[in-house]
User: Fold this.
Amino acid sequence: MSDPVSPPQKPLAACIRGVTRSFGDGGTKLLVLKGVDLDVRCGDITMLVGPSGCGKTTLISIIAGTLAADDGQLEVFGNDLRKMSKAAITRFRAHTIGFIFQQFNLIPTLNCIENASVPLLIQGCSTRLAEKKARALLEQVGLGEHAKKRPSQLSGGQQQRVAIARALVHDPRLIICDEPTAALDAKNGLLVMEIFEQVARSPERAVLIVTHDNRIFSHANRIASLDDGKVTDVHDADGSSPLPDHIANLAHG
Ligand SMILES: Nc1ncnc2c1ncn2[C@@H]1O[C@H](COP(=O)(O)OP(=O)(O)OP(=O)(O)O)[C@@H](O)[C@H]1O
Ligand SMILES: [Mg+2]
Assistant:
């Protein structure tokens, strides 16, 4: 019988257990992830914080399927990424995940519309439809009048918003962002967080954000701390308890 008091469990977008990852070998081997456990729930904005170099980008790259774990268990929407072929992971990623890179990774020779269209073109969508959707998203992130410019003609914050439009254009179920607001001023940071909140309002979608920007913590449902290769605590940011000091004291920007 179900417990009448507990709220229903949210389904998991990602379930990570005991994930390890190292770089290099022999005397130079660096064990970065030492057994990470983390649940990323649908309907949530989950934020991941931790000191520079602690493995945040490594962990989200593993969840996104662009980097393999050495060991442990990893399911994304119930799919065991460690058992899938590279081609299957690429297909899965193209449909399911929107990834915003720390360094944006825009294609310099393409304009904003073309950059933001890429995920739909990879899925086989017509150029006309892909560019129509890309333009609508660029307008949503406040870049309508820059749509025909190339990345080199844009500021850092504008490039970051093109990267955000590209990550959203194919309506992915899991949005993963590496420092999405670092280059944004307060107004555009809020605009972007409101877009992520719209996404996470859907019970089938999830947003996972790496950040050290304390201006956006109020938008989180949960904040997970990564330190020394492990998730050391997960704070439920429902307002019932204050932020732990190590999170509250993070500087923004
Ligand atoms: N491809 C790689 N080859 C070798 N070492 C790597 C590689 N990628 C990451 N590392 C190392 O792994 C550690 C974790 O890197 P990672 O980029 O995941 O950190 P991070 O928490 O995202 O840091 P930051 O907040 O500065 O972005 C660092 O010491 C880094 O030098
Ligand atoms: Mg990083």
Q: What stands out?
A: Residues 186-200 form the longest helix (15 residues).
